TrEMBL record:
PROSITE patterns: AA_TRNA_LIGASE_I, TRBD
Keywords: Aminoacyl-tRNA synthetase, ATP-binding, Cytoplasm, Ligase, Metal-binding, Nucleotide-binding, Protein biosynthesis, RNA-binding, tRNA-binding, Zinc
Protein family per UniProt: Belongs to the class-I aminoacyl-tRNA synthetase family. MetG type 1 subfamily.
Annotated organism of origin: Labilibaculum antarcticum
Localization annotation: Cytoplasm
Motif segment ('KMSKS' region): 330-334
Motif ('HIGH' region): 14-24
Cofactor(s), names only, from the UniProt record: Zn(2+)
Physiological role: Is required not only for elongation of protein synthesis but also for the initiation of all mRNA translation through initiator tRNA(fMet) aminoacylation.
Gene Ontology CC terms: cytosol
Reaction(s) catalysed by this chain's protein: tRNA(Met) + L-methionine + ATP = L-methionyl-tRNA(Met) + AMP + diphosphate
Protein name: Methionine--tRNA ligase
Subunit text: Homodimer.
Length: 676
């Protein structure tokens, strides 16, 4: 295996058009942070590079909706995103942004280098144009029906319903997202990167040299390579982005998927003048942490760009995750179907590690996984509280109870003691092996196995019973339990950094180096501090509040989907004047036998007392509408309903969900008053 002297870790750049959610955290940022923390703890030279993607159509769409400038949008959300990452303990060495001066300069220079080398193909083709908006339409400004799954809300680059990549011209009934008009095809000039030129090199590099890549990554790359690569545009007709530094490119910017990965380079430049050794030295290892929707860009397009430039290394691995769903449905920013990190921080203070734990234990490493609030609660209560928290609490409480918090001297070890201590380095090796191969779920499980070992050791030795008969033996048992606890502070730190720090404060110790994990890491006679609970149980009502919040979101989304009934044909004024609508008061009400919907009402119309049959039984109980003032069409021809003559109609309003409400005066009024 090749030896590397430094590691460059990059994370996908989130669009700065909204906050980040748990899908981002699970798919990219928690695994990247775990991996980087682990390498740092081993004393390796490693950088974690991140930043906000502040160009592209999603930004301009957001700005248009909110009536502000794209710069206003990115300034707002860049800060929200950066703050969320910091509070969740994502330890970026630099968190930059693609609207920065250094990025514009770096991206422009990269383009110019390729352009001067003749790497681009410049050609004219037809693209959709909105004549009303007087502009060419980027892919995300075009919506229509997906030709694969018939989803009516597909974009010009991708159908988010079935996940298929599209060209805007593939859409059925394309529509401009700006004006709602049907766009027309119009000629425009663009610069293309000939991916086919690098097809053979990419095939060897991925399909032969990197068979160890995750199956989902390798498989998606193979599918693209097997079907053949084609030139891909690196410019767009837009006003927001990095201007294309070429003659005849006025009004054009670099396509966001050419521009964004260069953001990793510009961020590293911003961080250190030694940036080139991380990007160009053969003994540097580059790892991209991304979601599955970015695999092609990081494994095929960006490497082709780097090869075209000629002086950069290629990524050693791209451990992309699948998607995390939420309560059985795909996370969606536009539908507000998400658990937003900034809201979680407010609603679950000091519980960053609970979410880090759950998202790692349930990480979508090989397939899409589902986050549910019930699972969140169960993992907290049954694993963090009952396993890790329980072991630590019992150990520290007994140490204070028996020895006033002073670590007792370790005496002669039994075979069971030796077997227990011998397992600590085994768990360390297992964690290492899994982290080195990007199996974060398994690595976390191995770290938690050390807490399970501690619980088993205490349960098997029962020091609370033995203290009455063999105090010397209990000292050794408690010493070993404390050694396990101290080792835990290091082994869990990549996954649960806040918990590790809290536990170190309980033990009154400094961080223990990774290579020191083993039998004895804390001295006899050391004074530990008073401890509190590492974790607390999360109650049903807390979880129900989160479920209710999502249900309210779902109801709001469903209501938005409901289409208001179209306007009926016009009537003339004389027809309208024929309607005689009066205020009436319901004086009696009862259900109509053998029906679900009908109520028999007695209504005082001010003219008479009459019977009206109304289909409102599923919405109102008879007893709750007595005395209710309503609007009555009194000159409707009588009709027989279930053997009852109905003499008029009660006017009702029906909302998008089919719920009926009375049309009533806003204050008491005399029955018989006309409604005009």
């Amino acid at each position: 295996m090749k030896k590397f002297n430094r590691t460059l870790v990059t994370t996908a750049l989130p669009y700065a058009n909204g906050p980040v959610h748990i899908g981002h955290l699970a798919g990219v940022y928690v695994p990247a942070d775990i991996y980087t923390r682990y390498l740092r703890m081993k004393g390796e030279d490693v950088l974690l590079i991140g930043g906000s993607d502040e160009h592209g159509v999603p930004i301009t769409i957001k700005a248009q909706k909110e009536g502000i400038t794209p710069q206003d949008v990115v300034d707002k959300y860049h800060n929200i995103i950066k703050d969320s990452f910091e509070k969740f303990g994502i330890t970026f060495d630099v968190y930059s942004r693609t609207s920065s001066k250094i990025h514009h300069e770096t991206a422009s220079e990269f383009f110019k280098t390729l352009n001067d080398k003749g790497e681009f193909i410049v050609k004219t083709n037809e693209q959709y144009y909105d004549s009303k908006a007087n502009q060419f339409l980027a892919d995300r400004y075009i919506t229509g029906t997906c030709p694969h799954c018939n989803n009516d809300g597909a974009y010009g680059d991708q159908c988010e319903s079935c996940g298929t990549s599209l060209n805007a011209t593939d859409l059925i009934n394309p529509t401009s997202a700006i004006t709602g008009n049907k766009p027309e095809l119009k000629e425009t000039k663009h610069w293309y990167l000939p991916l086919d030129k690098y097809e053979d090199q990419l095939k060897k590099w991925i399909l032969e040299d990197h068979k160890e890549w995750k199956p989902n990554v390798y498989g998606q790359c193979k599918s693209w390579l097997d079907t053949g690569l084609h030139p891909r545009a690196v410019t767009r007709d837009l006003s927001w982005g990095v201007p294309v530094p070429a003659e005849g490119a006025e009004g054009k910017v670099l396509y966001v998927w050419f521009d964004a990965p260069i953001g990793y380079i510009s961020a590293t430049k911003e961080l250190t003048p030694d940036w080139e050794k991380y990007w160009k030295a053969d003994d540097s290892k580059m790892v991209h942490f991304i979601g599955k929707d970015n695999i092609v860009f990081h494994c095929i397009i960006f490497p082709a760009m780097l090869k075209a430039e000629g002086s950069y290394i290629l990524p050693e691995n791209v451990p992309a995750n699948e998607f995390l769903n939420l309560e059985g449905d795909k996370i969606s920013t536009s539908r507000n179907w998400a658990v937003w990190l900034h809201e979680y921080l407010e609603e679950f203070p000091d519980k960053q590690d609970v979410l880090r734990y759950v998202l790692t234990a349930n990480a979508p490493e090989t397939k899409d996984n589902d986050f549910t609030w019930k699972d969140f609660q169960a993992r907290n209560n049954n694993e963090l509280v009952a396993i890790l928290g329980n072991f630590v609490n019992r150990t520290l409480v007994l140490t204070h109870k028996y020895y006033t918090g002073i670590i007792p001297t370790q005496g002669e070890l039994t075979d069971f003691d030796k077997e227990t201590l011998a397992q600590i380095p085994v768990f360390k090796e297992n964690v290492e092996k899994n982290l080195e191969t990007y199996h974060f779920r398994e690595a976390l499980k191995e770290a938690m196995n050390l807490a399970r070992l501690g619980n088993k050791y205490l349960a098997d030795t029962e020091p609370w019973k033995l203290i009455k008969t063999d105090e010397a033996r209990v000292k050794t048992i408690m010493n070993i339990s404390l050694q396990i606890t101290a080792n835990l502070t290091t082994l869990i730190e990549p996954f649960l950094p806040f918990t590790a720090n809290k536990l170190r404060k309980f033990l009154n110790i400094e961080p223990i180096a990774w290579e020191k994990i083993g039998a004895k890491v804390i001295a006899d006679g050391h004074q530990i501090n008073q401890a509190s609970l590492l974790f607390e149980k999360i109650e049903d009502e807390t979880i129900q509040a989160q479920v209710d919040k999502l249900l309210a979101t779902k109801a709001a989304n469903d209501a938005e989907k409901k289409i208001v009934a179209p306007v009926k044909e016009n009537i003339n004024f004389d027809d309208f004047m024929k309607l005689d609508v009066r205020v009436g008061t319901i004086t009696a009400a009862e259900k109509v036998a053998k029906t679900k919907k009908l109520l028999k009402l007695t209504v005082d119309t001010g003219i008479d007392q009459r019977t009206i049959v109304s289909g409102i039984a599923e919405h109102y109980k008879p007893e709750e509408i007595i005395g209710k003032q309503v609007s009555v069409l009194v000159n409707l021809e009588p009709k027989q309903l279930k053997g009852i003559e109905s003499q008029g109609m009660i006017l009702m309003a029906e909302d998008a969900d089919g719920k009926l409400s009375f049309v009533s005066p806003d204050q008491a009024i005399k029955p018989g008053s006309e409604i005009r």
